[in-house]
Specification:
Blueprint (H helix, E strand, L loop, with lengths): L4 H27 L11 E3 L6 E3 H17 L4 E4 H6 L13 E8 L1 H5 L6 E8 L2 E9 L4 E6 L3 E4 L2 E2 L11 E5 L7 H8 L6 E5 L3 H10 L4 E3 L5 H13 L3 E4 L15 E4 L2 H13 L2
Parallel strand pairs: 3-4, 10-11, 10-12
Antiparallel strand pairs: 1-2, 4-5, 5-6, 6-7, 7-8, 8-9, 13-14
Catalytic activity: a myo-inositol phosphate + H2O = myo-inositol + phosphate
Pfam family, one: Inositol_P
Enzyme class: hydrolase
């Protein structure tokens, strides 16, 4: 079994580009041919009116589920649509084997509306630690990648988040209040204060990319599903940012986090957001 950091490092040194190509190919085969061409029968609802799935989601996830373990034999795949069909498959994130965490179309609502604000997210984790990630926004022609300890890149160029400008309101993307508990609503109200400019989030993956690029100062999210967060959290870290839960600890992709949590351009901003999230609860 592939279960050591050294083996993962060796794999990434040899095959990181192959993973990128698999992500691009999934989008080229399954996602972009359906963008702005979806038929009514290609869109379904899962748990509610805002929880959509399309043939593009299913096809891209199936493609990646076939291809990624071929690159890394012995690895498992946790994909959003597979977990919807079999919730027990999520437990692979807590196992000992390397695990690919896949969101085939993050921002499905935007995809269905024909907007460009969607992306494909892939992360590789071992023992609960994300080792590498890929964020691909095919409609925008952007691909960001990160390898733990080796930095983050956007289309091959180094990516640095920097720090917010002094004296300017913090730009924070937040979970929509319709999808929060009462306690989480109270926590998010802490951001309704002078010096902070909160707004509802779009695609989580693209919000993380915006933090890593220094276009957004922080996020404040209240759900734990790893496929939405694993890739982006590593991207932010490797760009120089930080992430913290409301308990003041880094986010754990295996769960058990005190929510909401934040990812921010730098540690000082992360701590400020957590303080604001905590004072109203």
């Amino acid at each position: 079994m592939i279960d050591t950091d050294a083996t993962i490092d060796e794999f990434l040194a040899r095959h990181a580009h192959d993973v990128e190509e698999a992500v691009r190919e999934a989008a080229a085969r399954e996602i972009m041919p359906r963008w702005r061409r979806l038929a009514e029968h290609e869109v379904d609802r899962k748990s509610g009116p805002h929880d959509l799935v399309t043939d593009a989601d299913r096809g891209a996830e199936l493609y990646l589920t076939r291809q990624l373990p071929l690159l890394l034999p012995g690895s498992a795949v946790v994909g959003e649509e597979a977990v919807h069909a079999d919730p027990a498959s999520y437990e692979a994130i807590r196992g000992r084997a390397p695990v690919w965490i896949v969101d085939p179309v993050d921002g499905t609502r935007q995809f269905v509306r024909g907007e460009p604000g969607f992306c494909t997210l892939v992360a590789l984790a071992l023992d609960g630690v994300v080792r590498a990630s890929w964020t691909y926004a095919p409609a925008r022609g952007l691909l960001a990648a990160a390898v733990r300890g080796q930095g983050a890149r956007l289309d091959g160029e180094p990516l640095r988040s920097g720090s917010p400008e002094a004296g300017r309101d913090l730009r924070v993307a937040t979970s929509h209040p319709d999808f929060t508990t009462d306690e989480q609503k109270r926590a998010l109200l802490g951001l309704r204060t002078d010096g902070v400019a909160p707004r509802p989030c779009g695609s989580a993956g693209l919000e993380y990319l915006a933090v890593a690029r220094g276009e957004l100062d922080a996020t404040a999210f209240n759900w734990e599903l790893a496929w939405d967060h694993a890739a982006g959290l590593l991207l932010v870290e490797e760009a120089g940012g930080a992430h913290l839960t409301r308990a003041g600890r880094p986010y754990d992709i295996r769960g058990g986090n005190t929510l909401p949590f934040t990812a921010a351009r730098d540690e000082a901003t992360a701590r400020r957001v957590v303080e604001l999230l905590s004072r109203a609860v």
